[in-house]
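Predict the 3D structure for this chain.
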Amino acid sequence: MKAMTSQASSEAMLSTSFLILNTSEIRLPMGSTAMHVIWLLPISASIRIFVIQDGFKVKAWFLTRKIREYILTFISQNIKKMENLSKLRPLGRTDMMVTAIGLGCWQFSKQNNLAGKFWPKLEDDLITRVVALSLEGGLNWFDTAEVYGNGASEKALSKALQASGKKPGEVFIATKWWPMFRFASNISKTIDERIEALAPYPIDLYQVHQPWGFSSEKSEVAAMAELINRKLIKYIGVSNFSAQKMKNAWEVLDKKGIPLASNQVPYSLLNRKIETNGTLAMAKQLGVSIIAYSPLAQGLVTGKFHDNPELLKNIGMRKHTSLFKPAGLEKSHPLILLVKELAVKYNVTPSQVALNWLIHFNGNTVVAIPGATKETHVKENTGTLSFRLSDEDMLKLDKESAIFK
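Done. Predicted structure below.
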């Protein structure tokens, strides 16, 4: 639904092709998938039926003209919020409702540590603009981590959100605890540092970054459960966990009545290993969301390196990985051609095609967190939410990228 500028345009937009069988029976349009839709159905010059559609459930009320006018005014003022609601999906079996695309914030690391040096240093003004454009484009969550510049990314994100005028609770924040050379007891010892870095924004999703700690994954998520009990975080996730480790974590939390919200793993058209190693299947079985990082295969899926191999000279360590070597580029070339073909068909960019496949091919299970170092990247990220590939085209991409499972 598009934003409305007047009561008249509101009523015109809310007109439908619903068939009124009688005053209490309404037939829904075929293929309707909207989560929350509000309609006004004319019965006479002064009477309308007010209908709320929630999936395929419908509630209807007769309205007088005065009440109808009040509702139309309210809708015209809040239509953008209602439009965004229909684009949200739950993270796992929590009530954390997120857009299918979030913003990955590794690139905000300021080159403060080894992990931070993967990206060029971004100035505060650019970070603020990237965050602001993400918000304007409808994104409602951001993913960062302790290891991203030893808290530099968290602090930069908080500063940018404040500059954008966002209040605590108006966006979701996901961050991660770094487990290397640490025991589970470190989770409670360092949580205050994470809270301080992100202040004034609360930690909505706290994730174990890697399965590399001195303690077991069971001990680590049990320690995180204590943070929920202390109301220091809201939800728990893991990252880079195998199917079995994810299940182990889920079982510990399930006994405590706490859902495991997510498992953040690499996933893209050029890296579909989670479909064959059991991770995706286990996530679906347990009701755990997959948060896909590196959803564009570090830019390879856009085709820019196929078109201009000279760019490979300035991409750091990536050029030494198999996908970026000549044999790897040749292997992915047929897929890249298909992605470009579909980009032309839908009048979008190759990255938007790749992201759109990712967030729709497995229903609502997968959400993605592409990064952004330029304003154009942000607009591509947010624009991904404005269309949907057909089932036929998604199956074409599935077939062409099957060699990367």
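The longest strand covers residues 48-54.
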